[in-house]
Description:
- By secondary structure, this protein is α/β, with parallel strands linked by helices.
- It folds into two domains: about 15-45 and about 310-419, Alpha-Beta Complex (Aspartate Aminotransferase, domain 1); about 50-305, Type I PLP-dependent aspartate aminotransferase-like (Major domain) (Aspartate Aminotransferase, domain 2), CATH 3.40.640.
- It is about 40% helix and about 15% strand.
- Helix 4 packs parallel to helix 5.
- The N and C termini lie far apart (about 45 Å).
Amino acid sequence: MSAVREKILERPETPDFACLRADFPILNQQVHGKPLVYLDNAATTQKPAEVIEAERRYYLEYNSNTHRGVHTLADRATEAYEGAREKVRGFINAAHINEIVFVRGTTEAINLVAHCFGRAFLREGDEIIVSEMEHHSNIVPWQLACEQHGAVLKVVPIDDAGEFEFENYDRLFTPRTRLVAVTHVSNALGTITPARRIVERAHAAGVPVLLDGAQAVAHGRVDVQYLDCDFYAFSGHKIYAPTGIGVLYGKSEWLERLPPYQGGGQMIRTVSFEKTEYAPSPQKYEAGTAHIAGAIGLGVALDYVSRTGLDAIASHEAGLLDYATQRAREIGGLRVIGTAKEKAGILSFVLDGVHPHDIATILDHHGVAVRAGHHCAMPVMQRYEVPATARASFALYNNRADADALVEAIRAAKEMFKR
């Protein structure tokens, strides 16, 4: 069983995914006269009607700032906002609610840790370990921290299948290793990394671990206590929630030790011109007015996913990925990029003689939405010696008809460039 799918809770019944599709209003439309086939879920997922309605209700019925007021609307907004924090805590099985920090998304969460950890613990000659399959958001913040503090970035290679080379990872540790930051699921390849094993090796050396969970949380149960990671980051918009909201999980002992990320209202206990005392976590890291509606929407999205069942979602998407991959490989000249044994619902590919951007454009004219480019993972493209890939990514509302439409549109692109 993969690290993402560990600790899955059994459900007594299998959800009807065909019916669930109707929960997403945006899917009921045509693009260029064709039914929309949305396969760009690794970039962002669509939102169920109940998430949209939850945000609408907040603005219509109890829009107010949180924590600062004693009037009724402020009380209702604060209750909903903090209720969403508790939902996140339960969803990832954090031990304490103060371990859940609301941020704008995975990118801000990683930047927060890189900035604060660097200020507190990085010195010249120290080392940070990342992997070759990281999103830019889990590379650039560490590069900035290394430049600022004189530290060194070390990289775990991946093999031809796109799998994490654990033996090389093991050899990278030295007495100067200060932190490991790796993806839980690759956004460009779909590879599921051996997250728990990665954490165990780092902890054996006394080194904390940050996991980038942006592509993991929507596709299987994530249990941060089981993984034992020190930090975990994810974005709401990749798990059917609004944009502009995300989560940084941090173990209490780390959030207590790190300095604040930004200064302002909400993150203080007392302020004078001589000295400021900071509020405890999570408020210490939530300066200013929060994205209240986004947090509420995130809580509703997590309710939706939990009600559907992460085990069922994982099984549904795995079946779709297997089916789509098998059908895509029937197309001559198509090469799948990323063939790890453990994968989430991502199919990246190249087609002989056709640039991925042209593939995506032609697919769009068939109503099929995919992503084309380097996917903010340029080192992955360099590893495979390709300028870009086309990427189809699956979600709970996708089905075999979507996979068939994808394959037929790829065939059409191939035929067009034959002429």
